[in-house]
Specification:
single chain; Rossmann fold; 9 helices; 15% strand; globular; binds cytidine-5'-diphosphate
Amino acid sequence: MRVIAIDGPAGSGKSTVGRMLADRLGLTYLDTGAMYRAVAFAAIRGGVDPVDAEPVAQLSRRIDLQMGNGSVVVDGVDASVEIRGPEVSRAVSVVAANPEVRAEMRARQRAWATERGGGVIEGRDIGSVVFPDAVLKVYLTADPEVRAQRRAKEMTDLEYDNVAADLARRDAADQGRTHSPLVEADDAVVLDTTGMEIDEVLDHLVGLVEERTAARRVDEG
Ligand code: CDP
């Protein structure tokens, strides 16, 4: 199985880089943040309070999730746009801190990768917890103002200040939680994309994947 793990805080460029890297390598891409967002969406839609741990855990085990390239279908409902909205963004941190939800998403992520023989998988705990044997682990980061600017540009209907506050709040929650907090895996390549163009980041990562794949072939004889 060939997994490329990309982790990092919000707005660090994981999704853009992950999608393009998957294209370049001929692999499939999985946005695991969209899975946690989908669980939060399903809770809100089903009238379940996102802080009610047990009902949310049950719901996470029950729902049908279809993860496409940029699309998410939850129990037959296309949630691709709504999962990016402020309501889901507010609810997602508490849902993602729920250990039973995490166990369920971890199992689904591993099954997804097994079915495909790997892929480019993006999130917060992908290299540290879900795929410790990934061929390459990347920790993408960037200055908080740059990350908020990038995100504000994508979400044209939201004010910069609101976007910046949301990212700061979610980063603190993701880094401070007990279960699978956002951390740099010991063997992750840390890349600060503050002053980098996407193509530069991509070329660098493609080079690393090629190196690692060749080294693995030698190891495996
Ligand atoms: O796109 P953005 O960086 O804003 O966030 P996301 O990747 O869509 O993830 C949304 C939230 O899901 C994060 O703030 C985390 O709380 C959670 N998440 C997680 O806990 N573990 C993952 N592997 C991916 C996301």
